[in-house]
Protein: Polysaccharide export protein
Organism: Symploca sp. SIO1C4
Amino acid sequence: MNPTPKPHKLPLFQGNRLITLSSTAVSKTAFTLVGAMLLWSAEAGVIADVGQSQSLPELTGEQSEQVESNGAPEDQVPVIIPAEILEFNVPDPNAPPPPLGYQDLFLQNNQPTAQFNRYRLGSGDTLQIQVERFPDLSFAYTIDIQGNIVVPLLGQIRVGGKTVEEVQETIRAGLDRFVVDPKVSVVVSGFRPAEVTITGEVQRPGFYTLQPGSTINEALLAAGGTTNDADLRKVVVRRRALFDDSILEQQLDLFTPLQNATDQPNLILQDGDALIVLQLESQDVTDYDRTLASRSSFAQAQINVRVLNYPGERIGNVTLPNGSNFVDAFTAIAPNLDDANVRKIALIRFDPERGKAVTQILDGKKALLGDISQNVPLQNDDVIVVGRNLVAKITNLVDRITRPFTDVLNFQRFFEDAADQLGGGD
């Protein structure tokens, strides 16, 4: 019969030792505190006869320094502040709500902050995961259509919609169950294309697939460039927030850097972004250089102007660089300055807000001789009518239109039909 095993004494001995040490430490600490209090009381002169009331004397400079070096008594005693003087950070219920987009938070000196530019992972992104000291756990993976990747030892994890930092911490926490102090780094080695919506004052609004890392300039060029009615000071980017899935709206100024020859906002468009170019308001026209804006890389490269000339019966097209003026189009048709018809030329433009054709009568000879009042900037789809009789007929037809043009195509078709019906001639 096996003898009964004796209990293991080492843990008990250690426990008793710990208890003994703890009791000794407490005793020493208590004696030290009592001695310190008696010494402080003696030096401060606070020991008095029993029953004699007295107040604490003021400490000398030397004693004050000693108290401060040892910790002031009031620093060791909790101070209770009356409730009536507490100030809580409670927002004013009557204060207006903050503007949509957190403009102050995500824009500094017309440059988006790193927080606004944080990248949200999605299907098609390729991740490079490195685990220090464990090459077998390092790998590269392209996020699948469901937004998942497969990690050694962890299996499938969802990364779609997360940031690189969040994925890195998720993998580190998971591997921590299998390896000691895993050091994980995650980088995006391949970005997915960005599906963005471009609307507003651009030539071809719609949905566009942009290359990874595309800027606002590249997006605007993909949409055909901005129109002459665009206000480059008011370009809006809408993006889904990382922290609460709300919609962030950020307005950028592309015109002022263009005017001052400074850096444009360094904003990289992300998948799901919406880009809106606002229209130039009438009250903002005076301090906005449309010619500079139209000649910039943001605007469409060329414009098409239709010319209805008196010698023919068909309307012709003149293609000009964006930012061209009336003289540029007028010289393209090689006018005869001695002809009286050049003194009365109609420039007809479609007004999309009212759905009407707006006519302006210009003197071609004065424009060619340098009269800037007659050399107006041209816009895409403008119509130039040359010939006094032809101008009279066309303007008469325009004035008789009671129903508005539904769009610019309807406006163009009207002049094509008018050229066929009226013909030319003086």
About this structure: The mean pLDDT is 76. The CA atoms of residues 20 and 152 lie 50 Å apart.
